[in-house]
Write a structure and sequence with these properties.
By secondary structure, the protein is an alpha+beta fold. It is about 30% helix and about 20% strand. The protein has 6 helices and 9 strands, in the order H-H-H-H-E-H-E-E-H-E-E-E-E-E-E. It has a 4-stranded antiparallel β-sheet with strand order 1-4-2-3, with helices on both faces. The chain has a 3-stranded antiparallel β-sheet with strand order 5-8-9, with no helix packed on it. Strands 6-7 form a two-stranded antiparallel sheet.
């Protein structure tokens, strides 16, 4: 959309649907290419890869592949032993009967969160179920299975505040972060972030 904030600062602006050919042209016409989100597929980057221009991507293609989906990110955190909520990949769980859901809630008595692994962000594709919602949880899981939506299950962790910190690293290793913000949501979807001015 031409109403996005970056469109007021960037010239020229191209609006439309990404194709592999358009992606190749962007890489050919620029020294550095970065993306606003992490789910750029290799099929979309196929011509960029074939043309040997992938080195222009920042963060690197290898780094972006590690975090392409929410499950990839989650798996990375678990492998690095970062503190994170316990999680199970949807395909590793049998969700066709209520007994299986009951077993899951026995493991996570404070509730569970079903998360779509792809194209989900800022609370979209995130479904929270408490102990009394087991049948609703089963219905949502079966819906995801039928739609072949990649998903995973995470233990619900009650929290008082949700904070976010964006940081970046330059080509020579410089490290910069933006101010810490507090994240507010309505029905699980990000509606506002609050930052104290200095």
């Amino acid at each position: 959309s031409l109403n996005e904030p970056a469109c007021f600062e960037s010239v020229p602006v191209v609006a439309g649907t990404w194709t592999a050919e358009l992606m190749l042209k962007v890489f050919q016409d620029h020294d550095v290419v970065t993306f606003e989100n992490e789910w750029i597929s290799d099929s979309l980057l196929s011509q960029v890869l074939a043309a040997g221009l992938i080195h222009k991507m920042a963060p690197s293609h290898a780094s972006m592949k590690k975090v392409r989906t929410k499950w990839d990110q989650k798996k990375f955190f678990m492998e690095q032993k970062y503190p994170t909520a316990k999680a199970i990949l949807g395909s590793d769980s049998d969700f066709f009967q209520l007994d299986h859901v009951k077993d899951l809630f026995a493991q996570f008595p404070k509730g569970v969160v079903l998360k779509e692994s792809e194209l989900a962000y800022d609370g979209k594709g995130v479904f929270v179920f408490l102990l009394e919602d087991q049948e609703k949880c089963l219905v949502k899981a079966q819906e995801m299975i039928q739609k072949k939506t990649p998903w995973y299950i995470e233990q619900r962790i009650p929290f008082q505040k949700e904070l976010a910190l964006v940081f970046t690293r330059g080509p020579q290793g410089q490290f910069v972060h933006y101010p810490l913000v507090e994240f507010f949501s309505e029905n699980g979807i990000c509606s506002m972030v609050f930052v104290e001015s200095s």
